[in-house]
């Protein structure tokens, strides 16, 4: 019989031997299984990860393939606005906690963007982690409540004209009286935009926004600066000038001299002012004489560039004709040919109009869009400013020539633009029969000439509002939407901001002279025909338009 201590020793040795042979078969602990996102709905609808026109208290359901650890939700599902601010939310659970229900604790803001981000660190109840995170993007809907008290349509038109006029009156350059290019331009003034601004002065006098004496004094300041200070090239003005010194501000590297189209817009305005300030007193007589000097000094036919049958847009004192851009094809520059043919001193012959302006391959159209025939221009008409800038002074009603009936051209182009936005085949947010108008304007991080064939989702108020003479009903619908519904976003010191995109919840802070001016002028042409009557009362305009083959009752 063995002693007890030997038995104990043997057991110890046996235990040690077992450890050395590695025969322990107990399994290592299994980590919790990962899980994945399954699906989601916003207000009961699934539409991927991007939602627009969402109400202000949306219900977001996020469903996963595993039961969630409720304590993990708060730190791993983050609700933020587009500025990065955290949005508080409430949670609920369904489907054995595999679905979490998110709802903002307070109503979201209209026309704002929000995101809900789910981190991979969101844990399931056993402790597993989400295979990949997700982000849900929301954009809230328009607040359709009225932002301002209801007033009559006539009062609304007057309000828009008065407020928009302040861009050219209160914000004019103090030294020259000319219009700044935009509200951030400092000393940079625009010759064409100033022409549009000059046309708003008779409107302002007639509607008693200012007195006739005030309007005359501003015109004396402007005309004196243009005559005595501003740089000119063969009588033509540059696109941009320094409003204090009159020196050219290059529009681009080689665009540092004459811009004939911008000059035409300026002359269109000056001729209207000449006709308006028709008093026999010394001051108004002198103003007319100075305007005639500027008008008669423009060497329109010199811009045929060595007697070609076309006008050229630019000339540079350092680079001559290197830009080599003919003014042809249907666009915003019809007024240039009308003025060039009407000159008392440097007139062009009809062959330049026919071979140059109308001779381009893309001049005629003739196709039908949305049941409207379009006589001239590119597919779907192009940006709407084609029917605005030249027709601030030229009355298209009853106007015809060998190429078009301009009543049809201006109205149908506008109706095509309107119907394109109304149809909204690209599903742009907000486009409708009350929210329409594609033309050149600022866009997020840039500028573009919007049109049905270049639609980036940006609406410019000037497009519909400057079309009042052509589409009064449709333009009034747009005006009421812009003012009453979006007024808290786009109505400011100088009228309507330049543009907006409901796709992006983006609203421009900018005002541009070339967009503000046509609003005042074309609303007035719709109401009284004032600027049309002034411009077409010019004897030389009647002669020039007849020479080009135009026919109208006013010629």
Automatic annotation (TrEMBL):
Pfam families: Big_5, Glycoamylase. It comes from the Bacteria. Residues 50-127 form the SbsA Ig-like domain. Residues 325-539 form the Glycoamylase-like domain. Keywords: Signal. Signal peptide: none annotated. This is Beta-glucosidase. It comes from Hydrobacter penzbergensis. The lineage of its organism: Bacteria, Pseudomonadati, Bacteroidota, Chitinophagia, Chitinophagales.
